[in-house]
Amino acid sequence: MSYDGVGPRAVMRSVAFLTAGALAVPLLTGCGSEDETSKPLAGQDIAPAARAQVTQGGTLRWAVDTVPETFNTFQSDADATTTRVAQAVLPSLYRIDENGRAQRNPAYLESAKVVDNEPKQVVLYKLNQQAVWSDGREIGAADFAAQWRALSGKDSAYWTARNAGYDRIEKIERGENDLEVRVTFARPYADWQSLFSPLYPKQVMGTPDSFNDGARRKLKVTAGPFVVKKVDRKNEQVRLARNPRWWGRPAKLSEIVLTAVPREKRAAALAAGKLDLAEIDPAAAQRIDSASAAKGAAGPRSVASGSSGAAEKNADDKPSEADKADKASKADKADTSLAGFEVRRSLEPAYTQLALNGADGPLADERVRRAVARALDRTELAALVLKPLGLPAVPVGSHLALSGQEAYADGSGALGGQDTAEAQALLADAGWVAGGPIKEETGEKAAGAKGEKSKDKKSEEKKEEKGEKKEKDKNEEDKNEEDKNKDDDGTYIVGQDGKAPGETTGGKELAQDGKQQLTHPHQGGAPGAYAPKGTAAPAGAAAGALAKNGKALSLRFVLPSGPGSESLRQVATRISRMLAKVGIRTETVKVADDSYFKDHVASGSYDLALYSWPASAFPATDARPIYAKPQPAADGSLNVEQNYTRVGTDQVDQLFDQAISTLDEGEERDLIRKADTRIWAAAGSIPLYQRPQLTAARKNLANAGAFGFQTPVYEDMGFLEKGARPAAHPSGK
């Protein structure tokens, strides 16, 4: 499915949890050495080359998911293409490096530092004297002040999606000269480097009308290596051209054409010569790898049948042998055309988690949530997704940072690893026992939009029998699951809903609010966990199932049903099996992709769900709304911000507040790590693995591909001079 959506910092703006009572946190310091510097699990893969090796000119045709509704990244409907355009055409005072850390951008900033702490925090920016907008005006204090006023939250006429950090500013003024900007804060702000990136001209930020509408369909004034030349919504393209007023290293490319191409059609577009660069799914990656390896070989290759193209998946048609032969021939030709591309691999700056809705039901009990977590083998789940792609299969150890970032430390010891006996003990302590009487429930509602509960119980029992048979040969199932993972990486990212409709199965509606990602169950298998061998699966619950007060322990696992989520469904199936081993049954609910997040995750209509959060270089600012304790609103509803698990504690809130207010970088890092251990202990969300990033790139394209953490350097992208070769690939190819 699509991995792009609103930019990471635009997404991470609101959340909240509910926990039952005070948390006992047994291992708050078990994070390893506080001074250790971690490294990214996978380096970026962009075919790096010196600028002298890159030819001058040329057009890069780059696939994106959408032509954005707005070019204003601070509006609620901004998406990943909004961010991509902003990175190429607008000032960013700080960029993110390959380790996920903020670095000063010398094209705009000569220096920036805190010059006063008392009585107020003051940051002095010294701007590059050559920095000008495309209309010739110097970038200066007036632009900073206009952006602050628009994003401060004090004027509701500005339709902003966020104001974090800007609401702490007291005033902005010119320094000793036009190149200096002094920003005074009313309250200390640790993440001040997150501000003014991107920076918009005062023409956009100066009035509510210009903010709300002036940058939605066009960007007249910019200040980057490229400018927005044309927005063609009919043909779904945004054309960027080299900026003649750019004062930095001149862009190598003459143009960048961003074209909206659905994920399932990108392999065909690459083969047709319509694209040079595109993020792809594992099925397309396999085709490109095979085409490159088999270049010059005769005859069709079996990999062609694994295409993820929509036209090649019409299972309802029954083509003749001639049709099959013609289709195979066309697929073979397409794969031959893919030999000019290569797959560049890294790990995306985002992680997939299992979300546990703690608003009510069994998961409102912290002991049950901890039991779910202790039942999971996170290393096995990471290997299921990442190992077939040749990427490091290492589970994520933090909610608030990824390996390589300064705040990263493995805090999972606060919860503990996989332990079946401990999980069962926690469930017993919570009152869930085997063999208790179970009252059959009736009158269940459909689960959310277009959800319906399966009525064919015999069919489901047969599916469970099939599942038990598969469980007898785990190695064979692992291979099958890994093969299926080649179809896509299947993760849903918060704020990045896919649009493909799919069939749904339902369960009862839960009245809750929230946001998250989803996965799909094993196709052809039983919804939920497999029953213990030798037991029946009647309408109520399997014999020997855990029960409490006449009710079986069963959790609704809500998953998207679209074609891009096969891998997530495999992860969900494996999780369900792990939970079954400790006595927890799951009821799988498949819903349409376009309703999954809004109608199920965000609304809280789920018990378990899979989705991803993007990483941030500024977790004290960006992660707080995701883990803040839900608070009652004036109208009696619950304000969860972005905390779609509804699990939160006062301690976590206090640690975030302390972290955002200290100007000591070491203290901020330690507070973030402590907050993470408490989040682990609350067991509202369980990080699983960092998301794979697969990018198809023309072999002679340099300085572009799987960027990992790093902000792309658009002026260095281009095509290699004849005979030039990029630096060695990180995987050695």
What does this protein look like?
With 733 residues, this protein is of the alpha+beta class. The protein is built from 19 helices and 23 strands. β6 and β7 form a beta hairpin. α9 packs antiparallel against α11. The two termini are 27 Å apart. Mean pLDDT is 81; it is low at 1-35, 296-317 and 442-543.
In short:
The chain is of the alpha+beta class. It is globular.
List strands and helices in order, with pairings.
Layout (H helix, E strand, L loop, with lengths): L7 H4 L47 E6 L15 H10 L4 E3 L5 E3 L4 E8 L5 E6 L13 H11 L17 E6 L5 E6 L16 H4 L2 H7 L11 E7 L4 E6 L12 E6 L5 H6 L5 E3 L2 H12 L27 H17 L3 E16 L9 H10 L2 H9 L33 H10 L3 E2 L22 H15 L2 H12 L60 E3 L2 E2 L1 E7 L5 H15 L4 E7 L1 H9 L6 E7 L4 H4 L1 H4 L3 E2 L5 E2 L10 H12 L3 H18 L2 E14 L2 E2 L15 E2 L14
Parallel strand pairs: 1-10, 16-17, 16-18
Antiparallel strand pairs: 2-3, 4-5, 5-7, 6-7, 8-9, 9-10, 11-21, 12-18, 12-21, 13-14, 14-15, 19-20, 22-23
Helix pairs in contact: 9-11, 18-19
| Computed Rg | 26 Å
- Profile the largest sheet: 6 strands, mixed
Low-confidence stretches: 1-35, 296-317, 442-543
Whole-Å distance between the termini?
27 Å
What is the quaternary state of this protein?
single chain
Helix count, DSSP H or I runs of 4 or more residues: 19
Beta content: 15-25%
Molecular shape: globular
Going across the biggest sheet, name each strand in turn: 11-21-12-18-16-17
SS-based structural class? alpha+beta
- What level of helicity do the residues show? 25-40%
Overall strand count: 23
Roughly what is the average pLDDT, rounded to an integer? 81
